[in-house]
Amino acid sequence: MAEAAATDAPETQTSLRTVVAASSAGTTFEWYDFFVFGSLTGVISKTFFTGLPETAALAAALALFGAGFLFRPLGALVFGRIGDKAGRKGAFLATVLLMGGATVAIGLLPSYTQAGMIGPALLILMRIIQGFALGGEYGGAAIYVAEHAPSNGRGQATSWIQTSAAFGLFGALIVILVTRTAIGNAAFDAWGWRVPFLFSGVLLAVSIWMRLKLTESPEFAKLKAEGNETKAPFKEAFGHWPNLKLVLIALAAVMFAQGAVWYTAFFYVQTFMERFLKVSPETINILMLSATAASAPLYVLFGWLSDRFGRKTVMLFGMVLMTAAYFPGFHMLSKTLNPALAEAEAVTPVVVIADPADCSVQFDPVGKASFVSSCDIAKSTLANAGVSYRNEPGVAGQPALVRIGAQTIPSTSAEGHPAPVAKAVKASVEARLKTALAQAGYPPKADPKRMNLPGAFAVLLVFVIAATALYGPIAACLVELFPTRVRYTAMSLPYHIGTGWVGGFVPFTAFAIVTTVGDLYSGLWYPLAFTVISVVTCLLFLPETKGKPLS
Fold it and tell me: Which residues have C-beta within 8 Å of that of residue 123, sequence separation ≥ 6?
């Protein structure tokens, strides 16, 4: 094993540590930037979508969080082409500059109240730039480390790139928590939310300094010296069936599950706790900080295990564990964090009896729907209260009824009324429903005295183990799967389709399903479906790549 032997020299080991540190630091910074936004969707919705109803504003913020992911595959293609033609180093130096500039700019944007639609429009542009930059970051960093690492230690070396996601999320949550604690919730919502975005300017300077110290990866340098670098990376990666087949296998067998599992474990769970369980942001931050801190060493552990037992075995363990944990885990979160809600749902279920023709999809990311029918008003009130409900067909043409235990509360339509009258009608229905819910034992928010925080953390830890077992070996697996000539392009596209389009839209899509169906847990069918697809595809089609030569 000449490759492994060559990397045993002390100077090369020092070089590998530098490579890992610089690559991970830059990736940590980029994840920090992206996660700050994801952790502040509630504040963002109030700041930039003030003119929308509460549900529509949150929906718009979640959609905007997903919009950043939408452009990640485009960034993967652009920077993948640069990385395969001109080199790895230059490509991911450019990505960190773009990401940092866009993040600092978000902290300076005017709100909806200050500048009307200019604020949201600029916010959308910055999110697009963020997603575009992150699309080129991960592949470059993972490949750069893997092409320096010994063949028998690639899993452990590249797992530090995965750990950078934990450090980035941890850093984002720490800065948010410290800022919120220092100035208070009111000031944080008013202006303090800008601090975490502006703080990234310091991290940007450190990341650029570290990356300027790097040289080109040995694999690409050798390829270029021999004149074998690709001249048409898109054609070679996607126009040749052997390479395209690997791209499709990577997407379906690994990245579908990666996007679904990771973003459910670290992001949708935050939306679920805040929006549906009515847990305070401070408690959520503490729980997520603890879970994220626990995840950091697990990425390296599972990367190391993949060097011993194989990438496929370790990743399958993570997929299967999360498949089994989705529904039981979220039900347990309800029981540990808001037991009064779980008890009320069990003792006094809520039923909406309405003409199906009177009901709309309870989701509107652009804020154009008014939701003023009797059914819509009833359902939107229940969704905003975090209350599950069952749907029953009602009499055609009759107003919707909400049955809460022995009580039946009629809803009222506001259709055809002027805006002030419609608002008053909705307020009247909401007041009657909230009173009935309170009488039935439904809590307006989670009671800290009844919370079982160790139990909730245990649930999150199961999610974390599943996510890190899947994510820890992924970089090594994907790098080993593709040939050097098109590795950056071929690897980056499926990675960012999986994490960007599947994972990035987990909070968006799951929230949409919940508000439409009425069951707090129904949104989990979305990530579960993609995880099951990956389990089956991985078993049948993914080859084991452990120890495969990169040349």
Answer: 44, 48, 64, 106, 109
From the CB of residue 412, how many other CB atoms can be counted at a distance below 10 Å?
17
Q: What are phi and psi of 355, to 5 degrees?
A: -65, 120
Could you give the C-alpha distances from 136 to 76, 133, 226, 343, 490, in angstroms and in order? 5, 6, 25, 47, 12
Q: Please count the other Cβ atoms lying within 10 Å of the Cβ belonging to residue 73.
A: 23
Residue count of the chain: 551
Domains and CATH numbers, the chain: 2-338+448-541 (1.20.1250.20), 343-439 (3.40.30)
Closest CA to 110 of 99, 101, 100, 121: 121
Tell me how many degrees the CA angle 415-416-417 measures, rounded to the nearest 5. Answer: 95
- Any bridge partners for residue 350, and if so which? 404
Percent of the chain exceeding pLDDT 70 equals 88
Looking at residue 444, its amino acid is: P
Q: What is the pTM of this model?
A: 0.81
Q: What values do phi and psi take at 410, rounded to 5?
A: -75, 140
**Rounded distance, CA 180 to CA 184, Å?**
5
Lowest mean pLDDT, pick from 153-162, 270-279, 366-375, 481-490: 366-375
C-beta separation of 483 from 246 below 8 A: no
In this prediction, residue 413 carries a pLDDT of 92
Helix or strand holding residue 403 (H, E)? strand 401-404
The SS3 of residue 370 is coil
pLDDT at position 348 is 93
- The pLDDT mean for the chain works out to 84
How many Å apart are CA 298 and CA 488, to the nearest integer? Answer: 26
- Measured over the CA atoms of residue 322, residue 531, residue 491 and residue 171, the dihedral's sign is negative
